[in-house]
Amino acid sequence: MKEIEGGVTAAKGFQAAAAAAGIKYQGRTDMAMIYSQTPCVAAGTFTTNVVKAAPVKWDQEIVYHHPHAQAVVCNSGIANACTGEKGYGYCKETAQAVSQALGISEDSVLVASTGVIGMQIPIDRITAGVKALVPGLDGSIAAGTEAAKAIMTTDTVKKEVAVQVQIGGQTVTVGGMCKGSGMIHPNMCTMLSFITTDACISKEMLQKALSEDIKDTYNMVSVDGDTSTNDTVLLLANGQAGNPKITEEGEDFKAFCQALNYVNTTLAKKIAGDGEGATALFEVKIIGAESKQQAVTLAKSVITSSLTKAAIYGHDANWGRILCAMGYSGAQFDPEKVDLYFESSAGKLKIIENGVSTGYNEEEATKILSQSEVTAIADVKMGCASATAWGCDLTHEYVNINADYRS
Q1: Is 388 part of any known ligand binding site?
Q2: Over the range 391-401, which residues count as b (16 or more CB within 10 Å of their CB) and which as e?
Q3: pLDDT (mean) for 200-210
Q4: Domain match, 25 and 88 both
């Protein structure tokens, strides 16, 4: 497996485009489209929030009850959440506009929105945006990059990645783009992720691969503890790589899952590192756990601790906050057996051993914690299971961004 340049247009047969529809933002693109030249099987995972945006409900219907999908259209600026039957009707009107412009079934059109909750989308601008997108559809890397930029809200950087892997003697490509910066919490986050692949794989195995993989990727990300109304991950496979069709578990399915995991892990970390107001990606690894669930529970508890996140922002090796967060997680462990390390590009330092400070050098610890990517590693010495979670530091700028978000 190797990483290659690009994102959603890296796989064979996929095109993308971006357009400025003036939905909320001025002077920048705010709509994106992904299109496959041939019908795809589609898989999806969606927010666990009881309050689900209209596009989530629309996409669940398409993914779960229709055999194929061929296009995705996304707007940024307005979330089309808490908008009732009218908002759902706008999803249908959007799909109809795409259907007419591309000559495909409206039941093969997926829609997505991100932005402010509670506002009705300006459907006239959306449908005009669709008409502007279609002529710009292109399979180039640049077109995929522009689409990744168009779905940004408070994101500060575009997020995309692509990899290639050999399956059945053929080169299979998996590429993706996502957005996400705030309202990010485990069990999906205010993130939209669109993944494309030219792998030939059944709809059932595609869904299995995605559903399993989000447990260790997007579901292990937290920025602020809020689970969004719009979280959506869509995975489209058009089969153009020509590999023997994957219909069951085996070496080919394993290879595909490894490529998918690379893409999802990379995108998840990009979301965490670009958390609203963040200055550092904060990674938490729990090792030596007696079970995967115990490790996941402990890692999530630390990554969501506001006090720990504030300490990371201050480059303060306040390890008591980490041990405290582990202690209230609900997972049972012996705090007097825990070893804790801080690690970054500046080095690795053992902070506590068997629950007690090692007498570490504070200046060295501060240097390690001053990097743009920081890892805390906690060994609970109970077994061989492990889990990794990603988040970011908590800064003054996070409050500023969210205090002024609607204005």
Answers
A1: no
A2: bbbbbeebeee
A3: 98
A4: yes
Write the Ramachandran bin of 14: left for phi over 0, alpha for psi from -120 to 50, otherwise beta.
Answer: beta
Phi, psi at residue 172, to the nearest 5°? -110, 135
Catalytic residue among 145, 190, 266, 308: 190
Q: Is 190 a catalytic residue?
A: yes
pLDDT tens digits for range 271-293: 887 767 778 899 999 999 999 99
Residue 179, annotated as binding a ligand: yes
Q: Give the total number of structural domains in the chain.
A: 2
Q: Is 153 labeled as ligand-binding? A: yes
Whether 131 has a binding-site annotation, put simply, is no
Tokens for 316? 């303060």
Structural domain of 321: 281-403
* Interval 142-158 mean pLDDT: 92
pLDDT of residue 67 exceeding 60, the answer is yes
User: What does DSSP assign to residue 138?
Assistant: B
pTM of the model: 0.89
Given a cut of 50, whether residue 189 has pLDDT beyond it is no
- Beta-bridge partner residues of 337: none
From the centroid of its chain, how far is CA 309? Answer: 20
Q: Which of 228, 243, 273 is the last residue of a domain?
A: 273
Cα 366-328-304 angle, rounded to 5 deg:
55
CATH number, domain containing residue 391: 3.10.20.340
DSSP line for 355-366: TEE----HHHHH
404/407 Cα distance (integer angstroms): 5
Q: 127 among the known binding-site residues? A: no
Contacts 24+ apart (CB under 8 A), 319-322: 319/351, 319/352, 319/357, 322/376, 322/378
Q: Are residues 123 and 192 in the same domain?
A: yes
The response to whether 94 counts as a known ligand-binding position is no
Per-position DSSP letters for 12-33, written without gaps between them:
TTEEEEEE---SS-SSS--EEE
pLDDT band for position 51 (50/70/90)?
A: confident
